[in-house]
Input
Amino acid sequence: MIFIQPSIDPVIFSLGFIDIRWYSLAYIAGLILGLTIIKRLNKSYGYLIDTNKLDNFFIWAVIGVILGGRVGYVLFYQTNLFINNPIYILKIWKGGMSFHGGLLGIILSCYIFCKINKVNFFYLSDLIAIVSPIGLFFGRLANFINTELIGKPTDFYISIIYPTVDNLPRHPSQLYEAFLEGLVLFIILIFFFIYNKHKRNYGFISGVFLFLYGIFRFLVEFLREPDSHLGLILNIVTMGQILSLPLIIFGIIFMLKNVYRKNN
Output
């Protein structure tokens, strides 16, 4: 069964001096919905973080995700442009966001926020981990609309043609990631939240998120076209797979640390 990508304008509407894009809306929706759910989860824990502090953290999260995503994209995927013109990293309007960079950005902003406000870092990181798949889900749908991160040609019985690219049936890799990194990961993390809520073993859910996201991303990368300007690193793996390996490793470490602490 071969589908045709629907023609959807990446720009929702224009205000003349600025375009409102689906990708921007995905970030906004993910952050607002994420904060709303974090507040509910925090309430079920017994308000371990003051609600006003969570509202303040929203700004920290926005700054961490946007700056981290932009800096990460330039450093990971456009290194030559940065070396030749370091100022390029400030040109946010040029586009380009990296999930791995955004992840590092929000981890750093979360750490600083927790230090200043005397909040348990792993408690807040667990809450962030649970809602992160929401932003990933919306983001991958926006990638699909923008015809970004397209899949490799395939003869699989379910495929999609991107008319603006070519007429080859391809893997809908963005939708694979929206399903795995978004829907499936969110359900798994909610399950672990319910199961571990009374155990208070903070950091375990963060480990599960890092591990499973890394695994899902690593696997889907095999079905996705490598970045045209990078290709395969050493003709073996993509940059996305290389960046996912540390997440898998740290995820395992966090989970094992919690299991060890529980048994001692």
In short: The beta strands are 2-4, 11-14, 19-21, 159-161, 169-170. The chain has a mean pLDDT of 87. Residues 51-77 form the longest helix (27 residues).
